[in-house]
Amino acid sequence: MYICICNAITDKKILEAQSKGCDSIDDIMQELGVGDSCGKCIVKAENLLIENAGVQRFDPKNLSSDRKNYF
Ligand code: FES
């Protein structure tokens, strides 16, 4: 699937770069040129990196009830 239409960069290319050590959106942008035209793909590319790394976005709704008191 294309993530960056302007530069014909697929999710596969991004994940391949991530597996070779590009672990931030800045690294991916520099390595592949993602986002260097219209920029509409940057958030999508970053979310792909986060999802693939197994890191979940912080969401207070997912906290147990005793920990919600902190927010
Ligand atoms: S879609 Fe990636 S720069 Fe336009």
Write the SSE topology.
Elements: E1 2-4, E2 9-10, H1 11-19, H2 25-32, H3 42-53, H4 65-68
Antiparallel strand pairs: 1-2
This protein binds FE2/S2 (inorganic) cluster.
Quick recap:
The protein is mostly helical and 71 residues long. 46% of the residues lie in helices and 7% in strands.
Question: Which descriptors would you attach to this protein?
Answer:
Arc Repressor Mutant, subunit A; mainly alpha; binds FE2/S2 (inorganic) cluster; 4 helices; globular; 2 strands; two-stranded antiparallel sheet; 71 residues
What does the radius of gyration come to?
15 Å
CATH superfamily: BFD-like [2Fe-2S]-binding domain
CATH class: Mainly Alpha
Structural class: mainly alpha
Overall morphology: globular
Low-confidence stretches: none
**In DSSP terms, counting alpha (H) and pi (I) runs of 4 or more, how many helices?**
4
| Overall CATH architecture | Orthogonal Bundle
Structure description:
The chain is mainly alpha-helical. It has one domain: BFD-like [2Fe-2S]-binding domain (Arc Repressor Mutant, subunit A, Orthogonal Bundle), CATH 1.10.10. 46% of the residues lie in helices and 7% in strands. It is built from four helices and two strands. It has helices spanning 11-19, 25-32, 42-53, 65-68, and strands spanning 2-4, 9-10. A two-stranded antiparallel sheet has the order 1-2. A hairpin with a 4-residue loop joins strand 1 (2-4) and strand 2. Helix 1 (11-19) crosses helix 3 (42-53). The longest helix is centred in the C-terminal third of the chain and has 12 residues, at 42-53. It is globular. The protein starts with a strand and ends with a helix. 15% of the residues are buried. Bound molecules: FE2/S2 (inorganic) cluster.
